[in-house]
Amino acid sequence: xxxxxxxxxxxxxxxxxxxxxxxxxxxxxxxxxxxxxxxxxxxxxxxxxxxxxxxxxxxxxxxxxxxxxxxxxxxxxxxxxxxxxxxxxxxxxxxxxxxxxxxxxxxxxxxxxxxxxxxxxxxxxxxxxxxxxxxxxxxxxxxxxxxxxxxxxxxxxxxxxxxxxxxxxxxxxxxxxxxxxxxxxxxxxxxxxxxxxxxxxxxxxxxxxxxxxxxxxxxxxxxxxxxxxxxxxxxxxxxxxxxxxxxxxxxxxxxxxxxxxxxxxxxxxxxxxxxxxxxxxxxxxxxxxxxxxxxxxxxxxxxxxxxxxxxxxxxxxxxxxxxxxxxxxxxxxxxxxxxxxxxxx
Length: 345
Known about the structure:
- The chain has seven helices and 15 strands.
- By secondary structure, it is of the alpha+beta class.
- A seven-stranded mixed β-barrel has the order 1-3-2-6-7-8-9, surrounded by four helices. A five-stranded antiparallel beta sheet has the order 11-12-13-14-15, covered by helices on one side. A two-stranded antiparallel ribbon has the order 4-5.
């Protein structure tokens, strides 16, 4: 560990002793957004090792590129005192899952520089990112380098610094640009959904909270980051989550689900039988939540609210299936309705 040094004294050189190549692209500075959960997940994992470690970054590259998930390295990752290599096979599996389920793109990676003390990507890092950008036709990628402050007497409470970088690629060379990173409060919606579904147990998705926010530093900042309230890109994630809800309801009902757009969100109508359906009013917010559940009589056209226990969100498929089952039981036809011949109504 090394004492924290002012920017003028810190090294921005690669492992061969050269200054890290940087482009100014018109002196523009790229702004990145990241959730507090992802920053603290990086800090926790990096601080666990006395050698270099890392993981992958996934997000949406919109007007303001946003990192939704910072993962741990796969089981075949190589960690050494001055070298880290990702588990490429595991990365491919994660990329497919996060792309298909959430529309997230592979952003790049994060990794620590324990022995090198470099706050910029090494020459090897730059070559690797160039190759990835070329293979995937990415014109932009991000990388976060992690370094450590050594504060004697503070034990394991020393700050951990995240240095954001962005590459702009012309498919032949990736040029580094200045980047700034803003941190949004709370849990990334993707991490929240993955935790709710109980998937990727090897990622220890709940452990991010073990890293106190007081340890986090972005770049050369002397204090933990001030959290911003801007929320980017959750509309596409909400669409993906609602598509999953529709799929669960269709499996439970055995029939197509009607989707009606409303000013407050959506109404999902799932059949119970030919004469009866259940309508779920879903708010346009994250995480997706039920506002009301109604039983619909298809013959009379009447709807009546059901006092059914509503889960806190619709992120767990089992909760959605159970909600449909309970609502179906409560929507049993009355004795009067049982005596009506549907064919003569």
